Amino acid sequence: xxxxxxxxxxxxxxxxxxxxxxxxxxxxxxxxxxxxxxxxxxxxxxxxxxxxxxxxxxxxxxxxxxxxxxxxxxxxxxxxxxxxxxxxxxxxxxxxxxxxxxxxxxxxxxxxxxxxxxxxxxxxxxxxxxxxxxxxxxxxxxxxxxxxxxxxxxxxxxxxxxxxxxxxxxxxxxxxxxxxxxxxxxxxxxxxxxxxx
Length: 197
Fold this sequence. Notes:
The protein has 197 residues and is of the alpha+beta class. It has a single domain, classed as Imidazole glycerol phosphate dehydratase, domain 1 (Ribosomal Protein S5, domain 2, 2-Layer Sandwich), CATH 3.30.230. The protein has helices spanning 36-49, 66-84, 135-147, 162-181, and strands spanning 5-11, 15-22, 29-32, 52-59, 93-100, 103-110, 116-120, 127-128, 131-132, 150-157. The strands form three sheets. A four-stranded mixed beta sheet has the order 1-2-4-3, with helices on one face. Helix 1 packs parallel to helix 4 and helix 2 runs parallel beside helix 3. The longest helix is centred in the last third of the chain and has 20 residues, at 162-181. The model has no long low-confidence stretch (mean pLDDT 96).
């Protein structure tokens, strides 16, 4: 099987980002965005998705973290899309019901070619350290749009620890994408009656 991997660079007046991603990796993350909590979440995404992920980002953090988080989402979504190529043989669907102590989060995805995000998470605080928790949704919007992914994220049990909730989201995202991107040897072409994804 041809290696499913991609490397890309995105540069704007607000950010400069380089992403390398290997779909069939070993879960090795090497992330440096200048946003420590976000780095931790991307490491979790890589580890639990068993993706090899390198992210080097230089953004306008003196303004805030929004542009960096959003553009990293764009780059990871684009890298996944490129790495999957024509999507022949993929399982297509993936889901994870992930507990993190008192939290329980459902993450379900479809590599459909139709970007859609249903985000049903009520985070109890606005900041985790210096990280603005509204940026979790912004990251997911960007990833969904560039990958052409349908993604549902829903908290089934929340508690009052935002760190646990966000951690469950990123772990669940990794696990559901690992499932959806896995090759099913029974699938000829793509798993769609339309003949394309």
